[in-house]
Amino acid sequence: MGDFDEARAWMVERQIVQRGVRDDFVIEAMRRVPREAFVPFDLREFAYDDTPLPIGGEQSISQPYIVAKMLAAAELQPGDRVLDIGTGSGYAAAIAAEIAGRVDSIERDASLAEGARERLQRLGYENVEVHVGDGTAGLAAHAPYNAIIAAAGGPRVPQALRVQLAVGGRLVMPVGSSPSRQRLVKIVRRDEHDYDEHAFADVRFVPLVGDDGWPAPGGVPHADSRPTPEPLASTPATPEPAALTPAAPEAAAPEPAALELALRDAAEPLPDIDSAEFAASFDRFAGRRVVLLGEASHGTSEFYRARAAITRRLVERHGFSMIAVEADWPDAAIIDRHVRDRPMPGERSRPFRRFPTWMWRNTDFMGFVAWLRSHNALHRDSETRFYGLDIYSLSESIDAVLRYLDSVDPAAARIARERYGCLSPWQKDPAVYGRAALSGGYAQCEEHVIAQLGDLLKSRLDYAREDGERFLDAAQNARLVAVAEHYYRAMYYGGPQSWNLRDTHMFDTLRHALDSRGPQARVVVWAHNSHIGDASATQMGRVQDEINLGQLCRAQFGDAAALIGFGTHSGTVAAASDWGGPMEVKTVRPSLDGSVEFSMHGTGLARFLLDLRPGVHDALRERLRAPLLERFIGVIYRPETERYSHYAEASLAEQFDAFVWFDRTSAVTALPVSADEKYHAAETFPFGV
């Protein structure tokens, strides 16, 4: 079995079967059709990811799950005559052709139609005919049809399509009052004039342009392409986990306004972060052993300030004695020495000097470090320790890879930079992924890179052994040696394996630190929402087989762990456009309609706390169990591809124990690190705080 065959089998099991599709014809057809043949060559390695992919002409190939859901709803049978509207790449037509007797497919874009026609013929689909024309008019000459499937959203179901259904025929199509947001509608023709109709899922498709659809740009109804500001084709806004039962219409999802009202009723308005009352709202979690505080970006001032305020209260009022953050252990150890007034290890006394420097070298974190040093000075018998959880020197390791590749193969270095820009599983820009496809030169560098990273690790461990106050004890060092090559090799190629190794490492480091301080030790953790929100409640876990720190903490500590997420609607953020690129202050786009952030913005509240624990707001929790889009911005932010790059589906009620909302936020203020500013306080960070 080849790599694509294995990926296809995994896709069908994880994305189709486990998400509730039960139609055996569709499942078997998807096992046979090679999706890699329907995507651009440089995107083939992502053919079986759970995402649409661009195919040219501002169009996308539909994601596998939504294709399966629509075809299952259409109840295709052997021998059926099928009308497929919006040929695109021809993928959905090929799936239908595996089941049906004949498939007619209509595409407005002549170049896309020709490409699909050649592709289908090359793959041997002789029962498919591709036509260029207006899909809203259907194909009366070949009607009636047993099934009609439309891969574009219209303001209504065109009358021509209704009448071209055979009695007993099924039509599945996205319909909505907005060109960018619809609900999937299923129509069954009972007799000449009688139709059953119901909606069953929220989706976002490209607009259906035509005489009985949306007008083309400028009001010209017969343009050659359907425009979209972002690729939207077949993106589910709230996919439903259960299989469609045609005989019993599914309950409609709550209207956004209803969700906004429910959120507003449950929301606890928060005072300004600088108010003494702000952090008091979090005393309800003071009895937990592990309190994990998230962030929706790595460059938002309000998230840092809020976490600092909550942490100060948990330390001062409730006896928390450890702080662990999403940072490299050696760099965090410098901060730990500083806040406990311990001797510094010479030349390695300037932490966080690699990309992304602003993540910890910013004025908000600088202020927190100053407070922690002052607090410890007054409590020498019960000092609060500061730890880094991340894999040994992740940023320094990446820098080592890039420096090596720059010297031996600049083209491979460019590929590496783009690939590292997509390290996080929720940052998916197919165009960047495609450019980062493995080349021969990239692959040939692997052994040298792994060897170099091994040398880097050994030097750091040698340093740890020489250090009077070792970074890790012998057991932890031995574990790092065992995992290092595996992790670095996975990191070099990217994918879920590297993510899982990294978060498992962070959890093991956290657990080891807790054990070293005794059974009464309690810790506050700062990390991104993608690390601290339970991955099993998100697209990461449900589709991509990824685990994370929050999920592992829940499994280990149960109710003794509190997972608290943070979010925002708009404002500014400090981020880069590519890995290793300069920090920019970027405008955060207003959250997408259909996202959990959009509904929170709809409450009209500037700041609030949402308690998601069972027994508190159970009616709202039940609403928020359904998957909604959720935004994740990391050290990289690409607004131009935001739907692909920064949104994933998640069940908020299962992901977090609480959620903190700031409607409008601002970027952190970074500290300069250039050599010509050596006398600035930032250059002596953390000593200048």
**Whole-number radius of gyration?**
27 Å
**What count of structural domains?**
2
Largest sheet: 9 strands, mixed
How many beta-strand runs?
Answer: 21
N-end to C-end Cα span: 59 Å
Indicate the low-confidence ranges by residue numbers.
220-256, 422-446, 466-482, 675-682
Mean pLDDT: 81
The 3D shape can be described as elongated
What does the model show?
Helix content is 37%, strand content 19%. By secondary structure, it is an alpha/beta fold. The protein has two domains: 3-253, Rossmann fold, CATH 3.40.50.150; 259-533 and 550-684, no CATH class. Strands 11, 12, 13, 14, 15, 16, 17, 18 and 21 form a nine-stranded mixed sheet that branches. Strand 3, helix 4 and strand 4 form a beta-alpha-beta unit. Helix 1 (3-17) packs antiparallel against helix 2, helix 2 runs antiparallel to helix 3 and helix 8 (301-318) packs parallel to helix 10 (363-378).
What's this entry about, in short?
It is built from 24 helices and 21 strands. Strands 11, 12, 13, 14, 15, 16, 17, 18 and 21 form a 9-stranded mixed β-sheet that branches.
Pick out its properties.
689 residues, single chain, 8-stranded mixed beta sheet, 9-stranded mixed beta sheet, Rossmann fold, 2 domains, alpha/beta
